[in-house]
């Protein structure tokens, strides 16, 4: 492994900043589209639509399980890599330690904070849409469940981020191999939790879209 690869600071929150913008853009577009929906709340024996919705939820559940399994497998491989780099860190120069410390502080103050703020903003917008649907008599149980899951994962990510902040010493010279390891692992866990929060929010939006689609189908049937 080349030296540059050994010591490259590779926290990569939601992949790269470019991917972060894309992922936030998708959520914003989804929320804006949903905000324009006018949903009627008529339920006239839509058994077949209910079956389709249940099948869709089962499919999403399977995808979430696969996603979590893949995350865990990648996290295990990352742990092994960090353990090897921990040994190399014992001989890291003062400059490398200071550089790592500076980048860790920027990660906490910029990338993680930006991700959390945007997720919270989207969660609020989606929550308002769910409240509106509730007022119109829609069954928003699944959408609410996904939104709560998104909020729970974000809360867990915040805990990890606070743990990283507590680990950072006053200056880079005090970055020990163990501190280096813990910061890397906790940053990876926080990143994965933010991804899970993001995915759950996408599922929430999809559930709301499904409610609109089902209502449109019901209106078409009534007009025939």
Please characterize this protein's 3D structure.
- This protein is an all-alpha fold.
- It has one domain (51-214).
- 82% of the residues lie in helices and 0% in strands.
- The chain is built from 6 helices and no strands.
- It has helices spanning 3-7, 17-35, 47-89, 94-135, 141-167, 177-223.
- α2 runs parallel beside α4 (94-135).
- The longest helix is centred in the last third of the chain and has 47 residues, at 177-223.
- It is elongated.
- Mean pLDDT is 77; it is low at 1-24, 34-47 and 217-221.
Quick gist of this model?
This protein has 224 residues and is mostly helical. It has 6 helices and no strands.
The shape is elongated
Any idea what the radius of gyration is?
A: 22 Å
Distance between the termini: 68 Å
Q: Hey, roughly how much beta strand do the residues contain?
A: under 5%
What string gives the helices and strands in order? Answer: HHHHHH
Which stretches of 5+ consecutive residues score pLDDT under 50?
1-24, 34-47, 217-221
- By DSSP (H or I, 4+ residues per run), the number of helices equals 6
Helix amount? over 70%
The description of the largest β-sheet is: none
Oligomeric description of these chains? single chain
Question: Could you tell me the number of beta strands?
Answer: 0
Q: Give average pLDDT, whole number.
A: 77
Structural class: mainly alpha
Number of domains: 1
């Amino acid at each position: 492994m080349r030296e540059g690869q050994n010591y490259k600071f590779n926290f990569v929150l939601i992949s790269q900043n470019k991917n972060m913008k894309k992922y936030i853009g998708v959520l914003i577009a989804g929320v804006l589209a949903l905000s324009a929906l006018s949903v009627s709340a008529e339920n006239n024996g839509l058994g077949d639509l209910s079956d389709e919705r249940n099948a869709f939820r089962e499919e999403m559940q399977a995808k979430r399980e696969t996603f979590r399994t893949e995350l865990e497998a990648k996290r295990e491989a990352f742990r092994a890599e960090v353990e090897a780099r921990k040994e190399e860190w014992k001989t890291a120069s003062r400059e490398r330690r200071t550089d790592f410390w500076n980048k860790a502080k920027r990660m906490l103050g910029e990338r993680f904070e930006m991700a959390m703020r945007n997720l919270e903003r989207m969660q609020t917008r989606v929550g308002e849409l769910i409240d509106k649907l509730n007022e119109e008599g829609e069954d928003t149980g699944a959408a609410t469940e996904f939104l709560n899951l998104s909020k729970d994962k974000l809360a867990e990510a915040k805990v990890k981020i606070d743990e990283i902040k507590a680990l950072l010493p006053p200056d880079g010279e005090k970055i020990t191999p163990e501190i280096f390891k813990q910061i890397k692992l906790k940053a990876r866990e926080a990143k994965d939790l933010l991804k899970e929060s993001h995915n759950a929010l996408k599922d929430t939006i999809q559930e709301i879209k499904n409610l609109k689609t089902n209502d449109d189908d019901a209106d078409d049937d009534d007009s025939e």
